[in-house]
Write the structure tokens for this entry.
Amino acid sequence: MTSRPGVVALTILFLLSLEVAPGAVRADATVAPAEETRAEVPELTAFHDVIVQLWHGAWPAKDYTQMKDLLPRVEQGVASVEGAALPGILRDRQTAWNEQLAALRQTLERYRAAAASGDNVALADAVEALHSRFETMVRLIHPAMPELDAYHIVLYRIYHDPLPGRDLPGLRAAAEDLSGRCSDLRAAPVPKRYEGSTERLATQLTALCERTDRLRQAAAGETWDPVEPAIGEVHSQYLAVASLFD
């Protein structure tokens, strides 16, 4: 069965939101492997080993020799992170990730210059800046609210399976799942560092759950026509919620 233009257009819009060219999608794009729905970059996790030695060992001890000795490992870690690919679930953060990579390179150059200069104050400041940059990248990868991440995983799978295949029974099950995730979201506590956005978050979550319910109702019908716009509305509102944590 050939997909109608509306399905193709909506799928392309979603791919663009992830900043992945449609031609780059694998032949089995309707399958979402487990690693593609896991919000993790193993290279960044591995980089934590040397960051720990710097931040919890050399930096508080003012061990400038160790700071210099660890520079090659930092260089290797940065190179590894630069070569990492974001999993599919994180592709909507590609632009922000690229910005952080550029900032990480600058921080590394600052570290190199300080290590070569013999200026211990500058070296300690560079290590502190490196740790701060690492923490920022970790926050970018790991969601502020696990409940929002759980919702996103289900939405991501919808775009990989029921939507391209116009699988109405599969979409019904996914929509029910999304509805439950929305209940979890609305009941979840707001992370402390975002407590100033509690009211805005509540408003946006209410809108997300309302759109999710409309999707559930559309999927309960017997035709595909109302489903496409309902999925698009859910996705756009999810992005509005996620933007509050940027």
The chain has two domains: 5-24+33-38+144-243, 42-141. The radius of gyration is 22 Å. The chain is about 70% helix and 0% strand. The domain at 42-141 is CATH 1.20.120 (Four Helix Bundle (Hemerythrin (Met), subunit A)).
